[in-house]
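tool_call: predict_structure(chain=1)
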Amino acid sequence: MTYLTAGLMTFQWDDDRPLVFTISQECGAEDARFTRIYDVDLTSLEGHYSYDFLLAYKDILIEASYRIVLTTLSTYHRNISSLFSKVAATGNLPHHQKEIDRDFLLVLASITDDMSHVATDSLRNFFRTYPHSPLFAREIIIDHFPIKTHKKGNFGRQVDRVLKSSLSTNQCIDVLKKCNDLYETGEIDIGLYSHMWLAFSLYLRPESYRQILISDLESSTTTKDYFVRICPVKSGVNKPQKITYRVSENVWSLLQKQRQAVIAKFGNIVSSEDIGKLALFPAQKMVTDGIGWFHAYPNTHYGQLETSSSFVSSYGKPINKKLATDIKINARRLRHTIGTRMAKLGCSATSIMAVLKHVTDSTARIYVDITFHGWDEKLGQSIKPSFEQHLPSVIKMRSKNVPVAVDKAIYSDDVDTGETILTGECGRTLKCQFAPFTCYDCDKFIPCFDVDHSLNLKVIELEISDYKKMGTPYQVMVEKAERIKIRIMLIIAVCDRFLDTQSRS
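tool_result:
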């Protein structure tokens, strides 16, 4: 058995089968390290490519481990090995291809239209980084590699992807309203429900949610602030520090219920001193006797799911299946939506990068460019609703410290203290008599980002409770109040992210 350490990864293979090997890497925050393992089997390519070809490719994977993390390396391998298989399937290669030469690239060019641009880009990037590898023939240059081009270019393709992914306000409210109904009827559990609301509050990647522990929930009893400590991914740091995110009281209460449910269901599996290490969103499948998880990884990692894909399968896909609509909620759609919203608020690419936790501001610049050029305003009416605000009516925001005209000021009463607080400004010529609650459902409302809008949330929740007690005749009022409740919660979420942006800028 051979062990080779390259960068932060360890390669392991049997000397008799060097084309079958395992790659492992220590990942995660410093207080919650775990080992990620990826298996590679190149033997399926032996019938078409020479032994030396495959060994040279393996050596490139080893060299790449000094520069990139295992998740990125595995993505490269999946794309390139798929490319090798498709080129071989054409039947136009010689028996046991020895290297990537002009003939190989000509065959690749003939099927580029049927391939993902990611695969061709991955092979091209490997050549750009390792041009002297024996995998590549000496006579080829970077221009020989075929490129799958988009008629609008790479930037245009990214812009199109953002425009198609952004959610409208009504879409978001419909999704969250249906989630509320599903939870109340018991069709989804607190795990799915709390994760959905957390996703609509923080806009992070599934890998970050996967690593949250029940001990990562924090609160301040003096200031009534609530936080979740979350490990960022794609940070470019080997041992990233967990970042503290502010969440609303409503989302916090859902996370607390999920925490209690996890302890009640899985607390008997771990010792009392390790309770805090349990995953907040753990694997659900258990062995028959209920004293352990079905799969090996959760048993050695306190219930944590092994990959972001398995997390999506456990907490993302079940929600979409229950929603049973054409709208599929995922992390990418939410991140594109909030990125564009922040650009409309005037946030810089650097600020958007800080909130969405990108390593560079290249993606964030797309949101800024979309807003700057007014592409969202030039869309047809069939597409424009996607830009009608994911987080309601937040084309503008204001501070409570900025003076506002008396006839436009929106005040709210704090039922706990009896204090009257400025919570926003009416953008109409004359404010209506039903403020402040109808304001949240109005596209002219300009909320204050530095006040606690949960004071209105408490009032509307009491109204919902009262209407429900009055029976069926008041069902319309219940639905209207629940819609306003969701609007308020989304306003709270965007205010929290706006404050995070300011504190980190």
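agent: The longest helix spans residues 475-504. Proceeding to next step.
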